[in-house]
Amino acid sequence: MTPTAIVVLVLALTVVWGGLALAILNLRRAPVDPDDDEPETDQPLAGDGSGPAGRR
Amino acid sequence: MARVKASTEREQWSGQTGFIIAAIGSAVGLGNIWRFPGVAYENGGGAFLVPYVIALLVIGIPVLLLDYSLGHRFRGSAPTVFRRVTRRAESLGWFQVGISIVIILYYTVIIAWSLSFVWFSVRQTWGDDAATFFTGDFLRVADEPGIGLDVVPGVLWPLIGVWVVVLVVLALGVQKGLERSNIIFLPMLVVLFAALVVRALFLDGAAEGLDALFTPDWSALLHPGVWVAAVAQIFFSLSIAFGIMITYSSYLKRRSNLTSSGLVVAFSNSSFEILAGIGVFATLGFMAHQQGIEVSELEGLTGPTLSFSTFPQIISAMPGGGFFGVLFFLSLTVAGLTSLLSLLQVVSAAFQEKFGWDAKQAALRVGAVAAVVSTVLFSTTTALYVLDAFDKWANEVGVITSAVVMTILVAWRLRMLPQLRWHLNQVSSTRVGPWWQYVVGVLVPLVLGYMLVSGVWTLIAEGYEGYPLWFRLVFGWGAVAFMVVFAVIMTRIRWVKNPDDFVPWPPLPTGGLTKSGDRS
């Protein structure tokens, strides 16, 4: 392989695989809290059904 | 207001890891293996990685997070989510389901071909002329594009087999079906493909192949087409803007780290693409070496031609080629299966929520209809032409239209980006800055809008692949018309259970949000 191709290959691996490694580390550093204060179901509150939720 | 228990609890992933694995399984598909390497090579080689990484960061990840925030905040399939956003947007959700249906119809048959080629690899059934074997002996492709009624048994039976498997997985539901299958298939794919890459790297000529892929042609960066190709590769590869990630994120628990998960999924997808580039071009280097030519003189470097014509030729010329062929075609089959399952879940979830069905009923009713249509259309001698047209129009017109409409609707019509950014930041450890709103609201619609207009103009002015006008109207524009009509009809049908009785969680702060998504 030419030196240029080797440099680009190493750069590509560093950026993309390095990005993946950092993303995994970042995820592991922030464990998800237990769902203790959230609604039990996906229909949490008795709405009046009069309008879409996103506009409230 | 009183908290009420829903009659049936919505399915969920067992945890964040299950979701991430399934989302990676969805993103890593056929395009990673047969599209990325050739596209990178044809658009500047190593230099292509510059626009590719930029497109990943400024288009891919922001739109992925938009999908996640919509699905996670409004907890449903695409039609449910958009209905909850605003009633008039329900049809956009059904349009996305329509796109998934069209893609499912042809995606299944490619997996069936891959499965057949696993077996063919063992015996190298294609003989000395793999190209003629693929289009002639195997597919029996008709001379002209048209509507064929001649069934090809060699395609029919594997296709039925694939449908049976995926419908069983679909009927098992999110945790027992989707999650478990992905937990098996994704590591299997990584192991198979890693073994293939290692083998490829030790072939004669592998270094020349890698040279061809990674040597940069910096002048290519001056061509707008190269940047468009990078955006298209990222966009089509990440399974964004047509319901998959909306549906998948809706099965996450309320407390889920959305942004960090998104980064893992996006970088995993690109990592696999780089790995595929190395494996494919090391192998192509071997082929060029065997023939005593340059890699640049090779033909058939992308798509079905790469997989089903070029690779079999290489397998025949390679010591231990049968084993290599099994690795390659099994990888293709598994990568396709995990993506197909995610597409099917988009459709299944939408019908479950609209008609109050469970997973089994949706698999039996909707899946069976799709299986019959897919089998009728794609087990015949004209399948390759129809597949080509469906693929072109579904992606370049359907998916991009969906993305442009979705971003304009959310950013400009409803001005919801501050709420969605706030939602992402409430549940995630990695905060999203105000830049995200400008990227999703301005840059993405502009770039994708340009791609849509230029793509549609080219299809109208120049046609596609020399296909006759009637064929383009029926199977190209007809596929898009199906998505629109399907969306209109499905929106008019009444919901069995009112989806509007819903309050997003977490509730917005009492003082409201500023335009940048911070508390006022």
Explain this structure to me?
- The complex is a heterodimer of chains A (56) and B (520).
- Helix content of chain A is 48%, strand content 0%.
- Chain A contains one helix and no strands.
- Chain A has one helix at 3-29.
- Chain A is rod-shaped and about 55 Å long.
- Chain B is mostly helical.
- Chain B has 20 helices and no strands.
- Mean pLDDT of chain B is 95; it is low at 1-7.
- The interface between A and B is large, with 44 and 57 residues.
Indicate the structural class of chain B.
Answer: mainly alpha
How many DSSP helices of chain B?
20
Number of strands of chain A: 0
- Named at the architecture level, the CATH assignment of chain B is Up-down Bundle
- Largest chain interface and its two residue counts? A-B, 44 and 57 residues
- Rg of chain B over CA atoms, rounded to whole Å, is 23 Å
Describe this structure in a few short sentences.
The complex is a heterodimer of chains A (56) and B (520). Chain A has one helix and no strands. Chain B has 20 helices and no strands.
Which keywords apply here?
heterodimer, A: 56 residues, mainly alpha, 0% strand, B: 520 residues, Amino acid/polyamine transporter I, globular, disordered N terminus
Topology, please?
The complex is a heterodimer of chains A (56) and B (520).
Chain A: H1 3-29
Chain B: H1 16-27, H2 30-34, H3 36-42, H4 49-74, H5 78-85, H6 90-123, H7 130-138, H8 153-171, H9 173-201, H10 206-214, H11 224-237, H12 244-250, H13 258-291, H14 303-317, H15 321-355, H16 359-378, H17 383-413, H18 417-427, H19 435-462, H20 469-492
